[in-house]
Amino acid sequence: MIRKLRPDEINSFDLDFLNFQTTEEVPPNEGFIGQKRAKEAIETGIRIREKGYNIFVTGMTGTGRRTFVQMMLQDVAKKLPVPNDWGYVYNFENPYEPKAISFKAGQGRRFKKRLEDLINEVVEALNKSFESEEFARKISEMEEKYALMRKQLWESLEAKASELGFVVQLTPAGVVMLPVVDGKPLPPEAVNALPDQAIREIEERQMKLKHLVDGTLYRIRKLDIEFRKSLEEFHKRTALFAIDPLFVEVESEFENEGVKEFLESVKKDIVENLLDFLRMDARERKEIYMRKYSLNLIVDNSDLTGAPVIYETNPTYSNLFGKIEYYVRGGFLHTDFSMIRPGSVHKANGGFLIVEAERLLSQPYAWYNLKRVLMESQISVENLEHTLGVSSTITLKPEKIPLDLKVVIIGTPYLYELLYELDPDFRKLFRIKAEFDWEIPRNELNVQKYVSFISSVCREKNLPHFDRGAVKRVIWYAMRNAGNSTKLSAVFGDIVNLIVESGELARLEGSEVTTSDHVLKAYQAMENRRNLLEEKYDEMIKTFDLMIEVTGSKVGQINGLTVLDLGDHSFGVPVKITAKVYLGRPGVVDIQREADLSGKIHSKAVLILEGFLGSRYAQDFPLSVSASISFEQVYSEVEGDSASLAEALALLSAISKVPIKQGIAVTGSINQHGEVQPVGGIVEKVEGFYRACKTRGFDGEQGVIIPKANAKNLVLKDEIIQAMKKGLFHIWTVETIDDAIEIVMGMKAGRVTKTGKFERNSVNYLVYRELKKMKKLLDGVPEERKKKKRKGKK
């Protein structure tokens, strides 16, 4: 069925159901517009706390995925409990394996400060105790007692030596025993001068004395050991007496088994290393104690309300999982528990972590390790070089921390499909897929939300508010971006850009409000920044470098429509499609396909075209015609099936020799039944041919044929609507190829009569007749000879 669209049917919508003059009267938008499917999916992922129900959010860039996810998670996180703080402390049994301590939220910071105060108090208490007069007096008494006992042992030795006729002297070289003769000690050389009998007697007595000396020296050494031990025990008792109340007080403030165990270890270590403490000066004591007896608080949730929501913009391995830092001393690398640094996974523990898929996958080992910690439900800190086993540096092995984390990855549908197909772990860990739509229905509720959204942007960016005309123009732009007059674009990044540029233009002109003209100027400025190639193509059409014809009629030639997509800008360009027929091997030759300039979809479309020709015209005889179809002046690959209707019309024109109006361009695909199917890029195609007609000059007969199903996709510029109103440009919708035949060829297509033949003097009849004629020629039966035989029979 042929239908010529009226200008008032295109871009038709109003804001009569909304009562406002400017967006200043409209309250700002709360929440998000549309995306019900994504919202429900994310809610499901949040609700299910089982391992593996992490969320992968997919959708086009600019649909507000990250903002939506952050807002939604923050709302949910406020209602969740604040997770624990975490810190690392020195491990006195194995310094290379720091211990992790968990605190209730806020207690980690308080314990860290309390620990610093405690160590200061300990240092001060020990200094006072060991420098007190009472301590000095006790030490003096112990030393006097020891000296007296030592003196008594020595005096006893001297008395026994005197009985044996010797004197003993204590020298740096040891104990010297000298025999006494006539009341005088004899030196060794004098002893050697005595008679042999006297020497033997002295040696016998000296042996007895030596046993006595050894015994006395042993008792003195034992006394020394006992004295040092008692001195050490006294220091420990003094230290414990001074610091124990301080530790008891801190332990009572924190009902935490890890804290209690750590404080006991600290107290024990201080007591066992008192001699080192006493040898240090005050500055050294404080520095070493503060480093060793401190808390490295890696997760501090004291300022949180609810669970954390962390968005990691640079998900490197160390940014996600933390690292162990080193410092150089004496030319060597050193580290300790205080050099452990947390990652985003630590900070988000108990809450939510948001990362961009593309950034995550581009970082070495980050994706692998994220999967590992999610599977193990534990997180530790280990540098990448040690994880990979490429470093021999001695490092720490911190205790692992339990992990309760919901990860939300934001990425493209392509990355989701890639991970789903190639990574079995991905399916286990990310069972929730939240898809963001790129469009939303254009109903009164969503339009109202759009107006509120414009109001929000104006308030947030401090822009002049939009009047009704400006709002209507933004809605028009949203429909145009969606490519559907019944939809609105959900790619809000583009909408914000238009609002900002329009508002800034209004401000530049000194206007208190943003009008439709400002929005239109901003839109045109945005296009002008990107449409250089489009203008070059228009110029080539104007100068006939692109040999497009928009007037007259030609056999086997038609204007098709194609779209060039440059990423940030797409535009339509008419393309001349020609068809030639001749006797030969039956079939349709696609010149683009033969030259390897045809994509698979286009090749399929040509095969469908062959099926259509055969099913419609070759029921009584086989096709005996060769045909070639070419996209003229196209030197890149042709893909898609949107030109199959134009190709079919060109081919039918070439066979029937009925000319086609060159002022009419055609887009649409056909199936084997000859039905016209919808295609993409309708707006760009219509506007592309309009520009070509405008460049060459209107004759009042020009226009575009589109599939009926594509009528809703028309969101055109005002210029084209005005041209339609003036009768300079037309748009027809068709349902079948026969509808298109009647428009472009100016003849009826021709139905099949009761006799099974096409109506006479119709295009289908002429096609059928010519194909039958070609079959006979191919069989070697000339038409003239056949007529003579018929006359002879008569």
Structure, briefly:
The protein is of the alpha/beta class and 794 residues long. It has four domains: 10-33 and 439-528, Orthogonal Bundle (Helicase, Ruva Protein, domain 3); 65-83 and 304-435, Rossmann fold (3-Layer(aba) Sandwich); 122-289, no CATH class; 545-779, 2-Layer Sandwich (Ribosomal Protein S5, domain 2).
Question: In the CATH scheme, what's the topology name of the largest domain?
Answer: Ribosomal Protein S5, domain 2
Global mean pLDDT: 88
**Helical/strand content category:** alpha/beta
Strands, count:
31
Assign a percent range to the helix content: 40-55%
Shape: elongated
CATH architecture of the largest domain: 2-Layer Sandwich
Write out the strand line-up for the largest beta sheet, numbering strands in chain order: 1-31-30-27-22-23-25-24
Number of spatially distinct domains: 4
What is the CATH class name of the largest domain? Alpha Beta
From the alpha carbons, calculate the radius of gyration and give it in angstroms: 48 Å
Largest sheet: 8 strands, mixed
End-to-end distance: 45 Å
Strand content: 15-25%
Number of helical elements: 29
Low-confidence stretches: none
Q: Can you walk me through this structure?
A:
By secondary structure, the protein is α/β, with parallel strands linked by helices. The protein folds into four domains: 10-33 and 439-528, Helicase, Ruva Protein, domain 3, CATH 1.10.8.60; 65-83 and 304-435, Rossmann fold, CATH 3.40.50.300; 122-289, no CATH class; 545-779, Ribosomal Protein S5, domain 2 (2-Layer Sandwich), CATH 3.30.230.10. It has 29 helices and 31 strands. It has an eight-stranded mixed sheet, with helices on both faces. A five-stranded parallel sheet has the order 9-14-17-2-18. The chain has a three-stranded antiparallel sheet with strand order 4-3-8, with helices on one face. A hairpin with a 2-residue loop joins strand 6 (174-181) and strand 7. Helix 3 packs antiparallel against helix 9, helix 19 packs across helix 20 (516-528) and helix 24 crosses helix 27 (737-745). The longest helix has 58 residues, at 196-253. 36% of the residues are buried. The mean pLDDT is 88. It catalyses: Hydrolysis of proteins in presence of ATP. Residues 552-747 form the Lon proteolytic domain. This is endopeptidase La. GO terms for molecular function: ATP binding; ATP-dependent peptidase activity; serine-type endopeptidase activity. Pfam families: AAA_32, Lon_C, LonB_AAA-LID, LonC_helical.
